[in-house]
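Priority: medium. Attachment 1 of 2:
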């Protein structure tokens, strides 16, 4: 793998869907080749009051698309006097990515939301999207995180147990994948009440309990 590819894929992000909520989680290490350029990097973003997204890939491409999605969601709300649904926003960005496949944005997303029901989607750089029933991962630590999810996920999980599982999955990747790491883990919870971004103190409590 070339240095450019390593720079664009080094991370671990996790999405888990339960009957009541969606959990988005990510490590916090940002890399440039083999150099850890940042240990408190943001990889989980709020798009609307009820939709969030994790990013893996080139940070410039990802941040550009985050800004674009936020503005389009707000425009949708103003024009139609209604909030955009998770599926509609996912379809919108899928069309953008597909239309740029010859000069692609070097990104991979997990998008989760609760606009009537919990929904989770995984998306690649050319707009391919998967409607995920239970869990998904992206980034260079995917194999380690997926191993944890495959063996420990339960469809009957409640919110707190799903948070702990997401932490265990990202932690496993941080231990074994050299491109994943950082000071802590970012956790976002999306349910019928909207988005809750866990603060550092709460995340540390869950890490201890996980």
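Attachment 2 of 2:
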């Amino acid at each position: 793998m070339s240095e450019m590819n390593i720079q664009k894929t080094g991370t671990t992000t996790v999405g888990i869907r339960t009957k009541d909520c969606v959990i988005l989680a990510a490590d916090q290490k940002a890399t440039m080749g083999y150099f850890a350029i940042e240990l408190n990097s943001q990889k989980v973003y709020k798009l609307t009051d009820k939709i969030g997204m994790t990013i893996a890939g080139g940070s410039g491409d990802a941040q550009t698309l985050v800004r674009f999605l936020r503005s389009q969601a707000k425009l949708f709300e103003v024009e139609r006097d209604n909030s955009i649904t998770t599926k509609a926003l996912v379809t919108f960005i899928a069309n953008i990515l597909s239309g740029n496949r010859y000069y692609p944005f070097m990104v991979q997303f997990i998008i989760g939301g609760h606009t009537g029901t919990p929904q989770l989607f995984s998306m690649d750089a050319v707009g391919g999207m998967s409607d995920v029933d239970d869990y998904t991962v992206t980034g260079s630590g995917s194999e380690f995180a997926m191993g944890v999810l495959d063996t420990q996920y339960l469809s009957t999980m409640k919110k707190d147990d799903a948070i702990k599982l997401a932490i265990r999955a990202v932690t496993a990747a941080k231990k074994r994948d050299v491109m994943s790491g950082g000071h802590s883990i970012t956790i976002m919870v999306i349910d019928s009440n909207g988005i809750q971004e866990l603060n550092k103190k709460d995340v540390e409590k869950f890490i201890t309990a996980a």
